[in-house]
Design a protein that fits this description.
Elements (H helix, E strand, L loop, with lengths): L1 H37 L4 H21 L7 H32 L7 H21 L4 E5 L7 E4 L1 H27 L3 H13 L1 H12 L3 H5 L1 H26 L8 H35 L7 H29 L4 H13 L3 H19 L3 E8 L2 E9 L1 H5 L3 H6 L9 E3 L2 E7 L14 E8 L8 H47 L4 H4 L11 H10 L5 H4 L7 H8 L5 H16 L12 H11 L4 H7 L4 H28 L1
Antiparallel strand pairs: 1-2, 3-4, 3-7, 5-6, 6-7
Helix pairs in contact: 1-2, 1-9, 1-10, 2-3, 3-4, 3-5, 5-6, 6-9, 7-9, 10-11, 13-16, 18-24, 20-21, 21-22, 21-24, 22-24
């Protein structure tokens, strides 16, 4: 009886350990995708992605092992596990070197050579693994689980593994000592604590084949379960610390995005897998190998988790990430959710005009907005031809000094729309004019008092919408003006998390500059002129390299760079005048060939306004190509 309970308890620990192993594999793979998606350009994130990939290989191969598999399949998975373990030491040293560089201690060549040498040594051990020298044949009935026989090379690798981890730990400590800000030190502590996760996770597999693991199975599996719990938490902690490297987003955005990613990915998938495993194993114990509740459990878990995350997201964002800035951020969230877009404005005004037409049985109604002394209709309901026959300028000239009196303009009753809120005006001063609302009348039609009251009520609604539109336009213009400065400050603040001495003293990089404007100026004077010869683009490394090949002529070098970037925008094949060729044709005809805007628009069968919009897109495409060439040159 005791042996039966003992066997059941041991099986339960092994099942729990298998669930945790699968959960760690899911978490590591999800965080690996996160690193690939958001900050892979940073060297710290790249080296961390390699560690995560090793963890994915180790724990996925472990999770796939099952008693139902053949001995050959189990041996294959065991060797795949060691594929990840073999490269962990090199990946750890790579990460520690990247941290030192980020903290302001670039390598003089020795650390870079050491990292590459570690990858060579790891590859050597991988070759030994492939030829059966690193590990021997499988022990199918081994205790505490089937494992590969240890060899002399296994002991050598264990020493290599431990010494590499100690070396990486020393580098971590050096990077921590270089941190000058509290946030940098705090996140470096998180990173150092989380960095123990892969080392802990591979520890049980290094013990296979030793007598201590075979003689104390409960101790081994209990320790493995505790270690897996720690590994799951520490991997997330490490990913949290690395998420701040290489991005200039505010801290709250990074935290919120990572938290959502973890909740929708690893947490949801791990919960579904755990419940599926429990339901399936329960069915096997009850004598039913196939349990119809398994797919139902998976689907229900995923749906319930996604539902809970969607409703809880605003609560945890405000409680966990907003901090002292909660009032400002909640205001921004409310503005985003209740923003009056152009479509919303048009729908509202269409409803207002429909009601006005219904009250007066009118065939046509319109609302015109006054923008920069120009009056233009933004919504027309009914017969548009009636409005096109008249001039709105004449209508605006008939607006008298009264704010609540309509007047006749042709076949329309016109009501002036004035601003009514937050005014600090003198008694005799009229509020600013926002626009006009017009309703077509039938011949000899007279407006009744109740119709007039209803019409003015609708006019007040239209004025309110135009006022909100005007205020929002002012806000958007202000945001557009401050965006470059805010982006620059965010980038310097992000760099200052780990190396404050250099981040505030360096010149703004090419990404902060108004690159598109520089490119447009250079293209405008492509064949010569001050906008080409004095262009800030001549300071780029790629331009200086081209100038060295052209006897130091920077103008020719910049012209050659622009030509190369324009050619990269060009689609494959022979030149055509189709949609996919529009950007290239605009660049070629407008700037390279120097044709007039009217001629280019006529040749491409588009209006001049549309041409200018497409031209901006084409210039931005050229700017991206130049930025990519400069970045690639600096990374070499």
């Amino acid at each position: 009886m005791i042996n039966g309970w003992s066997a059941t308890f041991l099986a339960g620990i092994q099942t729990l350990n298998q669930i945790l192993t699968a959960g760690i594999a899911i978490t590591a793979f999800s965080l690996f995708l996160y690193a690939l998606s958001f900050n892979l350009r940073d060297r710290v994130a790249r080296s961390f992605a390699i560690i995560l990939l090793c963890v994915v290989v180790v724990f996925t191969a472990e999770a796939l092992q099952d008693k139902s598999l053949t001995i050959e399949a189990i041996e294959l998975f065991l060797r795949l596990q060691w594929f990840g373990i073999v490269f962990l030491p090199a990946a750890y040293l790579h990460l520690s070197d990247a941290l030192l560089v980020t903290a302001g201690r670039p390598s003089r060549g020795r650390r870079r050579v050491a990292v590459r040498g570690m990858y060579v040594v790891s590859t050597f051990f991988l070759v030994l693994l492939a030829f059966g020298y690193l590990l021997g044949p499988i022990v199918p009935d081994g205790k505490p689980a089937p494992h590969l026989l240890r060899t002399l090379w296994t002991e050598i690798f264990t020493l290599f593994y431990i010494s590499s981890m100690v070396w990486a730990g020393i580098n971590f400590a050096r990077a921590y000592s270089l941190m000058l800000t509290r946030s940098g030190r705090r996140r470096m502590l998180y990173l150092m604590a989380g960095a123990t996760a892969p080392a802990l996770g591979s520890y049980p597999y290094l013990l296979f084949g030793y007598s201590i693991a075979a003689n104390h199975q409960y101790l081994f599996w209990g320790a493995a379960t505790v270690i897996n719990l720690l590994v799951g938490a520490l991997v997330i902690m490490m990913a949290y610390a690395v998420a701040f490297f290489g991005v200039s987003w505010p801290d709250r955005v990074i935290k919120s995005r990572l938290f959502k990613w973890i909740m929708r990915g690893p947490v949801t998938a791990s919960a579904a897998l755990a419940l599926m495993t429990i339901v399936r194993r329960s069915g096997e114990l009850l004598g039913s190998p196939y349990n119809a509740f398994v797919p139902f459990t998976v689907v229900a878990t995923v749906l319930l988790m996604e539902h809970a995350i969607t409703f809880a997201a605003p609560l945890w964002e405000r409680g966990l990430f907003f901090g002292r800035d909660r009032g400002e951020l909640e205001l921004l969230q409310n503005i985003e959710e209740r923003l009056l877009t152009q479509s919303d404005l048009q729908q509202f005004l269409e409803a207002v005009l429909a009601a006005a037409r219904d009250h007066l049985r009118s065939p046509t109604a319109f609302v015109a907005a006054l923008d920069d002394e120009t009056l233009s209709p933004i919504v027309v309901a009914g017969n548009r031809a009636m409005l096109d026959q008249e001039s709105l300028i004449e209508a605006m000239q008939q607006v008298n000094g009264e704010t609540r009196r309509e007047f006749q303009w042709g076949s329309f009753w016109v009501l002036p729309l004035h601003r009514r809120r937050n005014l600090d005006l003198d008694r005799d001063e009229l509020p600013p004019l926002l626009g006009l609302m017009g309703v077509a009348k039938h011949e000899k039609q007279v407006m009744e008092n109740d119709q007039r009251e209803a019409l003015w009520l609708l006019a007040d609604r239209a004025a309110l919408a135009l006022e909100d539109r005007q205020l929002q336009q002012n806000v958007f213009r202000s945001l557009a003006d401050i965006q470059p400065q805010v982006e620059l400050i965010q980038r310097m603040r992000a760099a200052g998390r780990y190396d404050a001495r250099a981040s505030l003293m360096i010149e703004p990089t090419l990404e902060e500059a108004d690159l598109a404007n520089w490119v447009k100026d250079a293209l405008t004077h492509y064949w010569g002129g001050p906008k080409l010869t004095n262009n800030p683009l001549i300071k780029l490394q790629v331009v200086r390299d081209l100038a060295e090949k052209d006897d130091g002529n920077t103008a020719n070098a910049l012209r050659a760079l622009l030509r190369r970037a324009v050619d990269q925008v060009k689609p494959r094949g022979d030149r055509k005048f189709t949609t996919e060729w529009i950007l290239y044709n605009i660049l070629e005809m407008k700037f390279i060939e120097g044709r007039k805007v009217r001629d280019v628009a006529a040749r491409l069968a588009m209006s001049e306004a549309d041409l200018y919009r497409k031209q901006r897109v084409a210039v931005e495409a050229v700017a991206r190509m130049i930025l990519e060439m400069e970045t690639n040159l600096q990374d070499q």
